[in-house]
Design a protein that fits this description.
226 residues; mainly alpha; 8 helices; 2 strands; elongated; binds protoporphyrin IX containing FE
Length: 226
């Protein structure tokens, strides 16, 4: 019988799919330009809220969401690449690197946006507090990082496709529904300790996540509108 293990709690899954929607919207609004730039900024604040939430959840969230449980060490990474170390149920060491790079790049994009200026009619809410030099620098980083972000997203999608096609591992279903289904024949692929590690995903955990997200949104909203 297959083992069914909750890997991605609801907060992580919602974080992921809302982040995807928000990033697509921020690219669409910037291409429309003009009045849509206001919306670009607002969507950007949502991205910032999501990223700050994800960082906090990486410390206080469920088992597989915690950075300490997937942060790769050089030995772990080389062991995984050479096939000597087994994978855990959450992000594997290589996937973890790409996840951390994605979080960093998205975070940089949202923060630099707060200080950016389009030289027409729209600027981030903090641009007025810093010198023109800083605004110019932040705007340049916002532009350059666009391509880093696009490259990381492309890599992310290629990796998921690779696992699907060449390793017969569907990573998308657990990110949608939360559970990994492990066939007894596949158990040897995973760390034995990890097979007993499910992520907590009950009402209390979800309520706590909602409270945390709301608190972050209120605090960021206070600074952004203040
Ligand atoms: C993660 C969220 C964000 C993404 C993915 C994003 C993406 C982009 C992209 C692709 C551009 C076009 C750059 C170009 O012309 O090549 C842009 C421009 C811009 N963004 Fe964002 N952005 C985000 C967040 C923000 C935020 C929070 C603000 C401010 C409230 C902001 C303010 C601006 C401004 C002012 C420009 C115009 C810069 C210019 O045309 O010189 N962005 N953004
Ligand atoms: C804007 C585009 C996207 C961004 C920025 C993005 C970002 C991320 C991030 C940050 C994670 C780590 C989740 C966490 O632990 O917090 C992740 C994981 C994941 N994403 Fe995305 N994602 C994007 C698009 C997609 C799309 C289109 C799909 C599927 C078709 C997808 C499927 C997945 C899957 C399956 C995982 C889990 C990978 C694993 O098992 O290690 N992502 N993504």
């Amino acid at each position: 019988m297959k083992k069914i293990i909750r890997v991605w709690d609801l907060p992580i899954r919602l974080f992921h799919w809302l982040l995807l929607i928000a990033i697509v919207l921020s690219f669409i609004t910037v291409k429309i330009g003009g009045n849509a730039m206001e919306l670009h900024g607002r969507v950007g604040y949502c991205v910032l809220t999501l990223i700050v939430f994800r960082i906090c959840w990486g410390f206080v969230g469920s088992y597989h969401a915690r950075f300490t449980n997937f942060m790769p060490s050089p030995t772990g990474l080389f062991g995984y690449l050479s096939g000597k170390t087994k994978a855990g149920l959450g992000h594997n060491p290589l996937g973890a690197l790409s996840v951390l790079a994605l979080l960093l790049s998205v975070g940089v994009q949202a923060v630099t946006g707060l200080f950016a200026n389009d030289d027409i009619a729209f600027e981030g809410p903090f641009a007025k507090y810093v010198s023109n030099g800083v605004v110019g620098l932040m705007t340049s980083i916002h532009h350059a990082n666009e391509w880093v972000l696009i490259a990381l997203i492309a890599l992310h999608l290629c990796a998921i496709l690779y696992y699907q096609k060449f390793k017969s591992e569907n990573l998308i279903k657990p990110m949608l529904l939360g559970d990994k289904e492990i066939d007894p024949s596949e158990e040897a692929k995973y760390l034995p300790a990890d097979l007993g590690q499910a992520s907590k995903d009950g009402g209390l955990q979800r309520g706590f996540a909602l409270l945390l997200l709301s608190l972050i949104a209120v605090v960021l909203g206070y600074f952004i509108t203040g």
